[in-house]
Write a structure and sequence with these properties.
This protein is α/β, with parallel strands linked by helices. It has one domain: 3-Layer(aba) Sandwich (Rossmann fold). The protein is built from four helices and seven strands, in the order E-H-E-H-E-E-E-H-E-E-H. The strands form two sheets. The protein has a five-stranded parallel beta sheet, with helices on both faces. The longest helix has 13 residues. The two termini are about 25 Å apart. The mean pLDDT is about 95.
Length: about 120
């Protein structure tokens, strides 16, 4: 059976590599990481993706622009962000947000939940 493919969208290289390492050790295949909205859209449009982990702030842009692309393909997603609640853009407050630094177990549980329809 093929492993689930998880898109990681994160503009901080060290955090992206940490997420990738945690997810791969848990048996997932990582797509990306993508460091910008543009590169993430390219991956969403051209790769098979089971779920996504998105940083909110990406070098001056917001990953909110990815929501329509993910929704169109029924790809569940979760945000991982260092933003404190008052700084989270209003349009994103209804979504699940994992606070950074994200513990490995928390990341794995969030991804597993999305894949099992518990997002």
């Amino acid at each position: 059976m093929a492993s689930a493919r998880i898109l990681v969208v994160e503009d901080e290289w060290l955090i992206a590599e940490d997420h990738k390492d945690v997810l791969e050790k848990a048996g997932y295949e990582v797509v990306g990481p993508a460091a910008s909205v543009r590169s993430a859209i390219g991956l969403i449009e051209n790769e098979v993706i089971s779920a996504a982990v998105l940083d909110i702030g990406l070098n001056g842009e917001t990953s909110a622009a990815l929501i329509p692309f993910l929704a169109e393909r029924d790809i569940p997603f979760v945000f991982a962000s260092g933003y404190v609640p008052p700084d989270v853009p209003m349009e994103l407050r209804a979504y699940q947000i994992l606070p950074k630094p994200v513990l490995a177990l928390t990341l794995i549980e969030a991804v597993s939940g999305m894949l099992n329809g518990n997002s």
